[in-house]
Amino acid sequence: MENLIDLHIHLDGSIPLRTARRLAKLEGLNSIDDTELRRRMTVPPDCPDLNAYLAAFAFPLKLLQTPEAVEITTYDLLTELRSEGVIYAEPRFAPSSLTTSGISQEEVVEAAIAGLQRFIRDQSEDIKVHPEHPTLRAGLILCMMRGRGEEAFRASMDTIHAAKKYLGRGVLAMDLAGAEALFPTREFAPLFSIIRGLDIPFTIHAGEADGPDSIRDAIRFGACRIGHGVRCLENPELVELLCKKQIPLELCPTSNIQTRIFPSFDAFPLRKLLSAGLKITINTDNMTVSDTTLNNEFAKLKEACALTSNEMHMLLTNAKEAAFTHLT
């Protein structure tokens, strides 16, 4: 397998099982065994839609409500990604979802950066001893969560301020995540006007639970990439626009199947996306919630969609070019 790049991976949806076990003990949940941990942290096989999929995050989020938990999880996730052969990743999370213990969003972000920095230090020491081991580069994406009202707006503004403060110091970009169909992308125009004014790069979840119009709104706002974006195929003019602007799509096949956008891997429109000339990338979305890895995503695409070695190389090149960090 070639060097892998994951541009769309959620920290809270990708807590390694061994980390979850440790965090559960810190929360006093000593009686939960690995089977129960998996059940609580993995989407059920009969998941009906995106909203039900998002419900699987309740327990993982409960484990991430302290700076220590955020720091540990960031470090452990990067360690696991490196062991999978990933050479670059952009873990993303919503700081506003990790403040129920009373800590600020900035404290959450600082904890994640501390985990990132500790990983970089330990990786450097390991490479001195084992220069043959792969090197993983990484940076963080901060997510605003979809919602309405003054409280949701203030939370998003706090996320924007944190992103600006730590931009280039561990933070790479911003995102908009959450219940896409319930809170349409167009409603967040004022926030993205502020983000553009601060010169913060951003991607937006669009064209997953909501249709092509959400992708058009994301493009209009100035998104550098589109999270998921598979429903662009419903509108040929939109496909043409994405191709013309060469805006990358962050595809997450297993996640799309679990949220019932597609019934199976056989039905995943990889061939249509490739034939259309779209700049697509393959990602995990949520390693633990979706019970997948990047190696697993490519293996399933190879089996179900006849993904060739040349096509895989092209997808990895797309990811390299779409990264918020310049990769040589």
Textual characterization of the structure:
By secondary structure, the protein is an alpha/beta fold. The protein has one domain: Metal-dependent hydrolases (TIM Barrel, Alpha-Beta Barrel), CATH 3.20.20.140. Helix content is 47%, strand content 13%. The strands form 2 sheets. Strands 1, 2, 3, 4 and 5 form a 5-stranded parallel β-sheet that branches. α5 packs parallel to α6 and α6 packs parallel to α7. The model has no long low-confidence stretch (mean pLDDT 95).
Radius of gyration, CA atoms, in whole angstroms: 19 Å
What's the total helix number? 14
Helix content: 40-55%
Low-confidence stretches: none
**CATH homologous superfamily (4th level) name:** Metal-dependent hydrolases
Percent of residues in β-strands: 5-15%
What summary fits the major beta sheet?
5 strands, parallel
- Architecture, CATH level 2? Alpha-Beta Barrel
Q: What are the secondary-structure elements, in order, as H or E?
A: EHHHHHEHEEHEHEHEHEHHEHH
Shape: globular
Distance between the termini: 19 Å
What's the total count of β strands?
9
Per CATH, the class reads: Alpha Beta
Overall SS class? alpha/beta
Count of folded domains: 1
Mean pLDDT: 95
What name is given to the CATH topology? Answer: TIM Barrel
